[in-house]
Design goal:
Elements: H1 9-30, H2 36-56, H3 68-87, H4 91-112, H5 118-131
Helix pairs in contact: 1-2, 1-4, 2-3, 3-4
Keywords: Membrane, Transmembrane, Transmembrane helix
Protein name: DUF2306 domain-containing protein
Pfam family, one: DUF2306
């Protein structure tokens, strides 16, 4: 594998955090709102999302930020705004904000797993190998 395509520790942390957020976010949205479990899962999801977003700033091609890093800033701001909304009792705004961030995560995951992308190729090659 070329050095520029290597799975660096930052990339692995980013993928683990985003993957965990994808699963945990779906579970959190499926839970009854306002319960202790929903709040616990939600807090863990926020940590995973912030880790994924913050670590992404260390993942750069040619040592430069790219347009994709704007999404990390938007994620940090959106998650923070949704937390503030919940703390202020604006539950509808909290729900809209968190749902939008989760939907964006799902879209990012889909694009990440397309053939021709690093993780997409890894996934689809594994599928082909598993089928024999």
């Amino acid at each position: 594998m070329q050095a520029s395509l290597a799975f660096t520790p930052l990339i692995l942390i980013h993928v683990a955090a985003a993957g965990g957020a994808l699963v945990l976010g779906g579970l959190t949205l499926a839970l009854r709102k306002g319960t202790a479990m929903h709040k616990l899962f939600g807090r863990l999801w926020v940590v995973l999302m912030l880790v994924a977003a913050l670590v992404s700033f260390g993942i750069q091609r040619s040592g430069h930020f790219s347009a994709i890093h704007v999404l990390s800033v938007i994620t940090i701001v959106s998650v923070s705004a949704a937390i503030v909304a919940a703390a202020r009792g604006r539950i509808s705004a909290h729900r809209r904000g968190m749902t939008a961030v989760y939907a964006s995560l799902v879209v990012a995951a889909i694009f990440t797993l397309l053939p021709g992308r690093r993780l997409g190729d890894l996934l689809w090659n594994a599928v082909v190998l598993a089928q024999g």
